[in-house]
Here is the input.
Amino acid sequence: MFHDRQRTGVPAIVAEFLRATASAGTSMRMNKNTKAGPYGWLSPRERQVLKLVVEGRTSKEIADAFGVKPSSIYTYRSRIMAKLEIGDLPTLVRFAIRHGIIKP
Here is the structure.
């Protein structure tokens, strides 16, 4: 469950996601000229926030998980949507499904 916390105070789902992205080598920054497409334009933290947002987590839940203010998550969401040129949440979810970030 999202609210179960480990000794570090990080919810289990976030800790699992951080481990998975680290082991997958997603910490490399990519520019717009890479073959990874638009998803590669995002920073590692933006990718983490994107995944949690499209999974239905609230900005407050994500902020609590990362130990930041909800306004920081709003900023990440705005940057993600600007970089991907997406104007609303349903389109962001469709993007995530098309790019394998989440399963339908």
Remarks:
- The CA atoms of residues 50 and 77 lie 7 Å apart.
- The helical segments are 12-23, 44-54, 59-66, 70-84, 89-98.
- The chain has five helices and no strands.
